[in-house]
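Q: Hi! First time doing this. I have a protein sequence and I read that you can turn it into a structure. Is that right? Here it is:
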Amino acid sequence: MSEEDIKVDSTNSIEDDLSASTLIMKANRYLGQKPDEPLVMFGDIIVDPQVRNADPCTANDCKWPKSSDGKVYVPYVISNQYSTQKKSTIECGLRSFHTKTCIRFVPRTNQQDFLNITSLSGCYSSVGRRGNGQVLSLNRDGCVYFSVVQHEILHALGFHHEHTRRDRDGHVKILEKNIEPGKEHNFEKHNTINLQTPYDYNSIMHYKRCAFSVNGQPTILPIPDNNVAIGFATQMSPNDILRINRLYKCHSMTAGVI
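A: Yes, that's right. Below is the predicted 3D structure, encoded as C-alpha cells:
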C-alpha cells in the first residue's frame, strides 16, 4: 500500500478514541499561545529554552533515585483543581506502575524533588527527574485519562516518544511533505538508549500515523508493512514495562501486561 492510498480513519470520533496519542494531540492543539507557558516541543515535552533537544535520561543522571529496599519512590502532589473523580483517575494511573515495576508513587511530605501534577493548558511533562517541584500538566478538561496519565508519567520517568528513537528509520518512514509547517521538530530523532528492547508499534509512547498532518495524509508510515496499526495504545505495552524495569534495574519484576 502506498502512502497515497492511506486515509484518515474516520470510523470513530476523537471522543471515542481513548488512545494517549489522540487525546494528547487534541488537548494540546492550542498549546503555546500564552506567554507564561513553558516551552513545550515534541508534542508534550517541556524543554529548556536554551536546549532544543531533551537528552536521554540516563545520559544526564536524571533518573529518580532507588531506595535501599530496591524501590524507586517518586513523591507527588496533585492540585486541588481536580474533582474527586478526576483525582481518582490520576491516582489509578500512578498505581498502575506499582504492580509490574519497582516504581512507587507516594504523596509528598517534605521531599525536595517531586512531581507537581496540575491542570495547566495541556498535557505535558519534562523527561526524567529535573529537580524541585517539576510540573506535570494534566489539563482537567482534556488530559485526565488513564492512557494520558501513563504516557506523561513515562516521560517523567525518562522516556521519549517511540517514533523518535534513534533506530526508528528501520521501522517507520517520516513523510515530511505531510507535516504541518512549524511542527517538524515533533519528528526529530533522539540519541536514545533503547535498553535492548525492540521497536514497539504498540507502545503507549507511539504517535498515530497522521500526527501533525497538514493534509490528512500520513506523517508516520510503518515499514515494510504500511498496514501496521500505530498509536492506538490505551495502556502501557509489555515493552514499555520492560524498559522501566531495565532502566531502573527492577530485577525482581517481570514484563507482564498490567
